[in-house]
Amino acid sequence: MFDWLFRYANPARFMGLSGALLPWLWSAALLTLATALYLGFSAPPDYQQGRTVLILFIHVPAAIMATNVYACMVVASLFSLINRHILADVAARTAAPLGAIFTLLALITGSLWGKPMWGTWWVWDGRLTSTLVQFFLYLGYIALWNAIEDETRAARICAVLALVGAVNIPIIKFSVDWWATLHQGESIMSGNLAGPFLVPFLVMMLFYMLLFVCLWLTRIRTLILERRLRSLMGAA
Amino acid sequence: MNFDLSPYGAFIWPAYAVSALLLGGLTLWAMARWRAVKAKLATLEKT
């Protein structure tokens, strides 16, 4: 079923393909960033939030990516445990710092939006608390990887931690439905976001996704070369 | 484009500044690591 995936999971083939794709992906990311900023700063003020809606253009994509990156880590960890593939280990390991930064960004920008709109920087409500838990899960995962010297063992143990932490994904997603929270409910898929705000948001979302792919591929490529470097130094 | 963010400029500009700092820093760090490892490998393969 996954034969096509394993064809590209060969490190040499992956290096060739990602090396050819990356210049195009970086160019697309820069172009979408410029477009998103132009559209965002040209958008009219919201009738309730005023221009703080500009914060939501960067907060919501960061929050979505924070969870999506964790989901990528979980899938890579599954492949790591089942198939024992070196590229799956590297993919899971390199996703963690990127996810941690997206989560931190979601927490900081959310706080900067919350103060003028809710009158507080922070509340211990379901969505905010589960996102904070996700941030600590990322930090724990990174710390565990760095604490275990044997890379194969580290990959197995960290994969288990990532899978256990996956429980938090539905909690983040449905926290606004399960509990009465200050954080507003889902407004994009339900069509509650008006056109003048939807387009800048979607373009910024595309930028965050492209940036993640660019950074992820770059980090995977770096770790593959680091492994090669270590084996060469060990052989010398 | 409208850069008049009053009365919320004190919240909006820091949000964009932190995003630029973290995402820009992450990008620079990733690129620097890639270049450093590539250069080290090239030197080692030459010798």
Termini separation of chain A comes to 40 Å
Number of strands of chain A: 0
Instruction: Please state the average pLDDT score of chain B.
Output: 93
Structural class of chain B: mainly alpha
DSSP summary, beta strand count of chain B: 0
Helix run count of chain A: 8
Helicity level of chain B: over 70%
C-alpha end-to-end distance of chain B: 55 Å
Q: Tell me the domain tally of chain A.
A: 1
Order of SSEs of chain B, N→C?
H
Largest sheet of chain A: none
Number of alpha- plus pi-helical segments of chain B: 1
Mean residue pLDDT of chain A: 91
User: Looking at the chains present, what oligomeric state does this protein adopt?
Assistant: heterodimer
Provide the β-strand percentage band of chain A.
under 5%
How helical, in percent, are the residues of chain A? over 70%
Shape of chain B: rod-shaped
Helices and strands of chain A, in N-to-C order? Answer: HHHHHHHH
Please outline what is shown here:
The complex is a heterodimer of chains A (236) and B (47). Helix content of chain A is 81%, strand content 0%.
Describe the protein in words:
The complex is a heterodimer of chains A (236) and B (47). Chain A is mainly α and 236 residues long. Chain A has eight helices and no strands. Chain A has one domain. Chain A is 81% helix and 0% strand. Chain B is rod-shaped, with a radius of gyration of 19 Å. Chain B is built from one helix and no strands. The model of chain B has no long low-confidence stretch (mean pLDDT 93). At the A-B interface, helix 2, helix 3, helix 4 and helix 8 of A face helix 1 of B.
What structural keywords apply?
heterodimer; A: 236 residues; mainly alpha; globular; B: 47 residues; 81% helix; rod-shaped
Give the helix/strand layout.
The complex is a heterodimer of chains A (236) and B (47).
Chain A: H1 3-8, H2 11-42, H3 53-83, H4 86-118, H5 126-147, H6 151-165, H7 168-178, H8 195-235
Helix pairs in contact in A: 2-8, 3-4, 3-6, 3-8, 4-5, 4-8, 5-6, 5-7
Chain B: H1 9-46
